[in-house]
Amino acid sequence: MSNPSTQTTSAKNTKYTRVGDIASGRAGDKGNVLDLTLVARDDAAYKWLARTLTADTVRRELNRVVSGPVQRFEIADLRALKYVLPQALSGGVYASLRPGLHWQKAAIWLLLDLMIEEGSGHVAWQQNL
Amino acid sequence: MSNDIICRIGAGAGFAGDRIDPAVALAASGQVDTVALECLAERTLLPALKARAADPNAGFDVRLKRRLTPLLPAAHATRCRIVSNLGQANPRAAGRAIAKLAAELGCTGLKVAAVHGDDVMDRREHIAWDRPIEGGLIGAHAYIGAAVLSQALEDGAGVVVAGRVADSALFAAPALRRLDGSAHALAGAMAVGHLLECSGQLSGGNFAPAGGAMLSAQDYARLGFPLADVRADGTAEIRLLDGAYGILTPETATLQLLYEVHDPSRYITPDVVLDFSGVRFELTGHNRIRMSGVRGHGAPETLKVAGFMELSGWIADCEIGFAGTGALDRARRAAETLRLRLADWTDDDVAIDLVGVDSILRAGSPAMTSAPPEVRVHVSARCADAEAAQVVEDEIYAMTLSGPAGGCSVRSERRPRIEVVDGYILASLVQPRIEWSQAS
């Protein structure tokens, strides 16, 4: 696989970095609970993500798609952040009104597609830039 | 104290429908002494319970024969043992079926241990549920631990077949009696199990590194499943067979270690509570890592129970396609039309969106950069009964005659309304047992 490089997007003279360009991720589910894991590609990316993608910020951005609170865990030795959303998949896999089963496998893109402004650390939805 | 390798465990399956050839490759390699196969999701147990109710000799994995016909001879030839939960709702019947199949395949003398006792439906008054049970409870199964599986292996089982068992326990059982006795070692073996239990998800499946690169189609098509060399202190080297396709790195391991884990310092298994906060992964070679630093904090007093409720009614899930110039506009108009036609459904009970645009991530979908050449309108609706589901299906079909031009390629499915509810039962109330059969 090729070595990924950081991509920045310019909008209104500011530079944003897409989370998915500096971290990998995976979504999981147990009953109503959605869990999202990010693994930063290096220590600097981990520190930046840990500082900017707070539980409150992630809740604000993800609540447009899934409901309820967000709890965050930090696993610094593994450069990983874990977000747990206990009410996001209300009713579980079978209650979903999305096509087919297991839409939540794609839910990690709700985090990977967030954009972080360099400097301010402001977090924004990709399509809102 | 020596810290020798105490067992070599291969990941043979991560779900009931998983690929069969990677398990056969591991068993035939001579590099593992046990292949463990996870074949029982919550959703898999429900049809198995229904099958058992209809026939006392059914209710195990319907893929048993297809999966084990190539695997049993390969494993028998290298003296590799098999541990699996493919017994589903009826491990004893599965054990008898495996012994018979092994005899037909010439695996003479093979001892099969069926582990049962996870079905706690008859002790339901002792289960503390997370939320009230609505409708009928169809089944209740406790997640049992590794001890009984380990007992079966130590008593000479060539195959151990169980029903509801903690997934990680299937993979940790071969190590259990040979560990150094510390809680941390036990936790290490369980963490190995947790890493292996989703097969290809540790070795490059469902994985994109930062930046989004993919493996080749050849890698995905022939993805090797991982194996672990476990040491007495619960540390392990986790790797792919030489020349296997896929990728296994500290990054793929970290993603799998934390997969479906909530508090990483408190991951509860029946045998021990795991703390992943000090875990380290070190790259030690090509597709080869070393895991250390897992801590363990005693066994919980209760076992988790999965309960199944079937609610009345259905979810109707249907689509109609539009193609050619203007497909997106016609699809959008059809979606608006369908919302008007399905006026009896509240917004909470119907979803109408566009496959190829926003049906999965909804408001979290990236913006469209150009109009797609074809689009499908998707409707899912909660329906009180089969007749209501047919109304939804018919309304979709009616778009072909009374909707925007070119509505086509209609499809629909109905899903029963199943809910899984978690509960807890005192571990002392669950006494797993072993029933033996032998290939003559």
Mean pLDDT of chain A: 90
Helix content of chain A: 10-25%
Strand content of chain A: 25-35%
Order of helices and strands of chain B: EHEHHEHEEEHEHHHEEHEEEEEEHEEHEE
Number of strands of chain B: 19
Characterize the structure shown.
The complex is a heterodimer of chains A (129) and B (440). Chain A is an alpha+beta fold and 129 residues long. Chain A has a single domain (18-119), classed as Gyrase A, domain 2, CATH 3.30.1360. Chain A contains 3 helices and 8 strands, in the order E-E-E-E-H-H-E-E-H-E-E. In chain A, a hairpin with a 2-residue loop joins strand 1 (8-11) and strand 2 (14-18). The termini of chain A are far apart. The relative contact order of chain A is 0.24. Mean pLDDT of chain A is 90; it is low at 1-5. Chain B has 440 residues and is α+β, with helices and mostly antiparallel strands. Chain B has 2 domains: 5-119 and 141-305 and 427-438, no CATH class; 307-421, Alpha-Beta Plaits. Helix content of chain B is 28%, strand content 28%. Chain B has helices spanning 21-29, 42-54, 64-78, 91-104, 147-154, 167-172, 183-196, 217-221, 250-257, 327-341, 386-402, and strands at residues 5-13, 34-37, 81-84, 111-116, 128-129, 136-142, 159-161, 227-231, 236-239, 267-268, 273-275, 280-285, 288-292, 295-296, 302-323, 350-355, 374-383, 408-426, 433-438. Chain B has a 10-stranded mixed sheet, sandwiched between helices. In chain B, strands 5, 6, 15, 16, 17 and 18 form a 6-stranded antiparallel sheet that branches. A 3-stranded antiparallel sheet of chain B has the order 10-11-14, covered by helices on one side. Chain B is globular, with a radius of gyration of 24 Å. The chains are: A alpha+beta (129), B alpha+beta (440). Chains A and B meet through strand 3, strand 4, strand 5 and strand 6 of A and helix 9, strand 15, strand 16, strand 17 and strand 18 of B.
